[in-house]
Amino acid sequence: MKCDAVIVGAGIVGLACALKLNLAHPKKKIIVLEKEDRAAQHQTGNNSGVIHSGIYYKPGSLKAKNCIEGYHQLLQFCRSYDIPFNICGKIILASLQNELPRLHDLFQRGKQNGLSGIRLLSSGEIKEIEPFAEGVAGIFVPQTGIVDYKRVAAKYAELITQRGVEIRCRTRVAALRSNARCVHVVTNSDIIEASVVVNCAGLHSDRVARRGGFPNLDVRIIPFRGEYYTLKPQSEKLVHGLIYPVPDPAFPFLGVHFTKQIDGGVEAGPNAVLAFKREGYRKSDINIRDAWETLSWRGFQKVARRYWKVGVEEMFRSYSKKKFVRSLQKLVPLITEDDLETGGAGVRAQACHRDGSLLDDFYFIEDQRVVHVCNAPSPAATASLSIGETIAQRAALRFS
């Protein structure tokens, strides 16, 4: 079979890329390949639903540019298709005096990224927004919101299908064989000849890249499981919106926080614990191949040596509800173990470089016929329409 473009992965980024590519080139035949029996089953379907403002990201980075542009596109998309969302705002709290420099740096970064209306909060002003939260200071970010990304992704899939894009589920990519004229995409069912391929395989993006001409890839996906609790209905009054800590700049994670949900309820979490299976949503999930690829990766070994204490602490918090609650009490002191019940979990595809760094920005690798998206963690859902457009533009250059 022949087509113009193959997109590997029907998560929210792959679907958005297909939508943008189809809108720009409606006569091109596009096929989206998904190994699961339906779209958006992993990172898209297991996140907290936050619409990120862009305050965290280095000015000028791909994350900053695409998050802010994607934010506006996402809100317009939701309005156009009656997808519920709520721009409820959030507060970022400094619990200790030694966190104040990082808080002020974050405030300046938000201003540099063009966020209007953000303001510093005193401890008393924090109480006006979140009566049960405590901190020595904080930032109010009015742009932050909540949405159900599964509904957003489902609408992307519906629109592209209506416009003639084919979504093939239960289809795994075994190899990509490129030449000057095309790419042969070898799957478990057939071989597709495409002018261009886009790899949006998320948790498996590095494997697809290695099968597609980059056997010595300098990054590897390390899966980190994020586990959540939910507030019991009678305890939801303790949290009015979104409450975050000041993040540790050494890690691309935002720390345990409280998130109001678009359909009701409040999530508490996530932690960030190493998963021994790329799609390991339970503590008991282990895949020998996945675990070996992580533990034998030189880059991860360097990360582990440098931050082993943090890793042990995260693992301990995973198994100790009491420890998890103590982290939450830094934000809302009245929270107790009795207020929480076990929630869901998600797995973040975090790219780790051979040099031992955890990649913080979006990361692409390209050759003559293929665009590999090798790192697209949060805020990829918020940024999906913008990053989809960025990828689509790069892919379209290969049509000629």
Largest sheet: 9 strands, mixed
What's the Cα radius of gyration?
A: 21 Å
For the record, the CATH architecture of the largest domain stands as: 3-Layer(bba) Sandwich
Helix content: 25-40%
The number of E-state strands comes to 20
Give the averaged pLDDT, no decimals. Answer: 95
CATH first level of the largest domain: Alpha Beta
Q: Going by CATH, what is the homologous superfamily of the largest domain?
A: FAD/NAD(P)-binding domain
Q: Could you tell me the strand content as a percent range?
A: 25-35%
Structural class: alpha+beta
Low-confidence stretches: none
Number of domains: 3
**Tertiary shape:** globular
**Element-by-element helix/strand order:** EHEEHEEHEHEEHEEEEHEEEEEHHHEEEH
Short précis:
A hairpin with a 3-residue loop joins strand 11 (183-187) and strand 12.
Q: Would you mind describing this structure in some detail?
A:
- The chain has 400 residues and is of the alpha+beta class.
- It folds into three domains: 1-85 and 145-218 and 362-400, FAD/NAD(P)-binding domain, CATH 3.50.50; 90-142, no CATH class; 221-353, 2-Layer Sandwich (D-Amino Acid Oxidase, Chain A, domain 2), CATH 3.30.9.
- The chain is 31% helix and 26% strand.
- It is built from ten helices and 20 strands.
- Strands 5, 6, 7, 13, 14, 15, 16, 17 and 18 form a nine-stranded mixed sheet that branches. Strands 1, 2, 9, 10, 11, 12, 19 and 20 form an eight-stranded mixed sheet that branches. Strands 3-8-4 form a three-stranded antiparallel sheet.
- α1 (12-24) packs parallel to α5 (149-162), α1 packs across α10 and α8 (298-319) crosses α9 (321-329).
- The longest helix has 22 residues, at 298-319.
- The chain is globular, with a radius of gyration of 21 Å.
- The chain starts with a strand and ends with a helix.
- The relative contact order is 0.20.
- The model has no long low-confidence stretch (mean pLDDT 95).
